[in-house]
Amino acid sequence: MAIKYTFQGILIYATMAAYLLAFVATLLRQRKIGKFTYLVGFIIGCASVAFRWFDVRHVPMQNLFEIFLLFGALVYPISIFCNRVLRVGSVVADMLIGAVVLFPAGFIFNAEPQQLPPALQSWLFAPHVFVYILSYVFMAKAAVQAVSHLANRQPHDNLLSPEEATYRMVCAGFPLLTLGLILGSVWGQLAWGDWWGWDPKELWSLASWLVYVGYFHFRYMFGRRFPRFSSVWAIIGIFVIIITLLWVNLSRLFPGLHTYAM
What we know:
Elements: H1 7-27, H2 31-56, H3 64-84, H4 91-108, H5 125-150, H6 162-192, H7 200-222, H8 227-250
């Protein structure tokens, strides 16, 4: 673990601090302060992504440092959208998640600018990676709601129950997960001449997609009798996504075509 004594690092740590302050203030029932500092964290997070974009001269989604940097900025708008439009709660948890997802960017992954490799110099680069990032955020929120369901927490302010909120989050994330898989296949054909290369990242991406297909099937068939098992299924899904995002990229045992995403 290493602290980044750079302007980029200062922006990351300021975003984390704002999210944590928002989390603590909300827990202490200082809701106005919590909302304000949550917004401030988002603004600083956007500035951090913009600075990285300017620094590397390409869309900052090349490696895990940039991916987690973008996660930190996207937490706020998705959180507010889900709360106000989809009637899904856990805004307080989202504040903490915003700080947590920035930890790898701030303390673990290398922030040195990297030249974009030829395989990523495609018009599909930004949409393919971005839809996956969005889907992962929605699925993470689904997992949070699933944990709330297993803990028997009750919704407030006319929000959906945790089990219904889990389903709604998976419904929001699954089309994005599907689109990411399709775009990746098209990109593989253009870049490597094959729609499917049996690369470890491709296999785990397919595995995560199949887990959520299984979630839908199980919930439809047995959800009323075993609602808790549906929530467990959603939690398993986020663990498979974590493997897809981290272990496949970092493992030296199964190198593949996506090993540049480090």
